[in-house]
Design goal:
Helices cover about 40% and strands about 15% of the residues. The chain is an alpha/beta fold.
């Protein structure tokens, strides 16, 4: 059983995808244009934001937000150590300094208490990552950002359609960055990303930044980048977006089955869902001290798993210049040694989840 079976997803909507791609080929417009603008409108509506700007990756989306807010050299940006490296990398590309903090032991997202302790006069922004598909505690984080007059940016790369207090991820801060990497809940046939915002002036600047700092053809107001989305990816995403709610419900059903089948195993810590959050389960992450042996056991049973993420950002060699060391963020380090992602995507059937759970039970119970 694959962790993510993109071919299975392809086969389920092949004819629609082929038609969409053919329309792009026949149009002769392969970058930006009507296919991209149509997807932007559809995605903005789906996540209940006023504006969506499509880009070529989630990393580009984060970088574009930071630079469009004039965050650069001399500025500090707070973000969690327990996240995909791309979150921190975007800060570095912008020229700013990432200030890493630990995550919550219960929900694995950035710890609001640690954010407060990390604020300095150089702090300009907080990036709240909605890890594995569960929003961070945005009520607390937004209050901190507002009180200290900091820009609040959301990394929604794993949180398509997730909510906190009924509000869609991406709408708490000034902007939210999404990824459409193929394995995401909404994935392209290559790279893709987007920024959503409710600020029209910021949306306009982001559109210019992704197009070489140009608001109009041949006139460049500032140094930007080439972060445009291609039309084929936009057309594919428009097709897939129609199924995202349905696929998300299947992920939630699969997660509920794991809770039912594995809740009585003391050797396994199941994910905890915040009572005010709607988790979309980009990953279903369990914890166990026997992680490596369990992973090996499941592999022998033809069950694919993954580790998200085995090395916290503060221990990555590329960030050694920041001066962090082992022991600085104990929760993140503990998680990195225990987490294991199980198959949960929409192609998994109830029988598959039962088989995977039975294999886990067999490992611990013999």
């Amino acid at each position: 059983m694959k962790l993510v079976d993109l071919n299975h997803q392809l086969q389920s909507i092949r004819s629609e995808l082929q038609q969409a791609i053919s329309q792009v080929l026949e149009s002769g417009y392969f970058s930006e244009g009507s296919f991209v603008s149509t997807f932007e409108t559809e995605f903005a509506q789906a996540v209940q934001s006023s504006h969506c700007v499509a880009l070529n990756s989630g990393t580009s989306a984060l970088h574009t937000i930071l630079r469009s807010l004039d965050i650069t050299s001399g500025d500090d940006v707070i973000c969690p150590s327990n996240t995909c490296f791309a979150t921190v990398e975007a800060i570095c590309i912008a020229g700013a300094t990432p200030v890493l903090v630990d995550c919550e032991a219960a929900y694995y997202n950035i710890d609001p208490d640690q954010i407060v302790k990390a604020i300095t006069p150089q702090t300009k922004a907080i990036i709240a990552v909605h890890l594995y598909g569960q929003p961070a505690q945005m009520n607390k984080i937004k209050e901190i950002a507002d009180r200290h007059q900091l820009q609040l940016i959301e990394d929604c790369a794993q949180a398509h359609l997730a909510t906190f207090d009924g509000t869609m991820a991406g709408n708490f801060g000034i902007a939210g960055a999404f990824s459409f990497y193929p394995t995401k809940n909404l994935g392209a046939f290559g790279e893709g990303g987007a920024v959503v915002t409710n600020q029209v002036k910021l949306a306009d600047r982001i559109r210019a930044f992704k197009n070489h700092g140009s608001y109009q053809k041949n006139l460049h107001e500032f140094i930007g980048h080439n972060y445009r989305m291609d039309s084929i990816q936009a057309a594919i995403l428009s097709v897939k977006l129609k199924y995202l709610k349905e696929w998300t419900q299947v992920r939630k059903r699969n997660a509920e089955l794991y809770f039912e089948f594995l809740s009585d195993l003391p050797e396994v810590t199941l994910p905890k869902i915040h009572p005010r959050a709607s988790h979309v389960f980009h990953q279903f992450v369990i914890r166990t001290k026997d992680r490596e042996l369990l992973k090996e056991h499941l592999t022998k049973s033809n069950i694919e798993t993954a580790i998200h993420y085995p090395i916290p950002c503060h221990l990555q060699p590329a960030l050694s210049y920041l001066g962090y060391k082992k022991g600085d963020f104990p929760v993140s380090e503990k998680l990195s040694n225990e987490i294991l992602s199980l198959p949960v995507a929409e192609h998994q059937t109830s029988d598959n989840i039962k088989t995977i759970s039975d294999s886990i039970r067999k490992f611990f119970r013999g």
